[in-house]
Amino acid sequence: MTDQVASKTGITQAGISCALDLKEKYKSNQPICVPGEKTKILMPENLLNINLDLESLEDPMPLSLMATRDPESPMSLAAAARLSPLAGKNKFVGEVMNIVADASKHENVTSAINMLHENDFHPKAIGEVVRQTNRAIVQTRKQFSSALRQNLHALLEGDMVPRNFVKEFFELTENGNLRHDIRKRLVTSMLLSTTIRPSIKFLFLENFDRLPEAVRMTIIKDVLNAPENHHTEVIKEELAWIVNNEKGGTFKYH
Q: What is the pTM of this model?
């Protein structure tokens, strides 16, 4: 792509490559990570942080794709907010935003973009979209946290089968854009719990690779350093095996 075309459209070859990579991640339900941080999942707050260099993710193509395709409205709304200042300066990007408004699966994204166009992408309008996004982040996390608590209660009461509980646990924590420290604490507490059956804990370990590597390794460290009891011995052995399998070597926890 020539520099002249890139300057007119704001679209770069790196941005196109990034968008294609994002498309594949959405297809395979893989997490999107902060550029240069392979173990740090991209959060809506990252998109709203104008001081954070998102590298090729700053390009209109990946941002418009996220605003259109992301399954969670806070991420889509944050992507639209991130793209808005450029849309106000670049006519082509403004037209791209119109396409996003028509194609997005989220009504609040469509509404926000329409409002931005009506106000010619005025900074006050962009600021309002940012505030809407922050409210959506808080509301969505509350909803997903409530669903997690309800599912745990149903599991302990025998009203939900373990495999469905674990499946929904990972879907809720991923789709709810929960912070990494919260996700780590939840999984660690499940693995160390004296009320959760070992079979359920092994189901968690079957899905362990769905967590970012940094989160996995922190969970392993916390569990292996926890006090010894008959509830955790087998889980510790399994986690030691995971460490050896991923890193190589003959690590033992005791």
A: 0.71
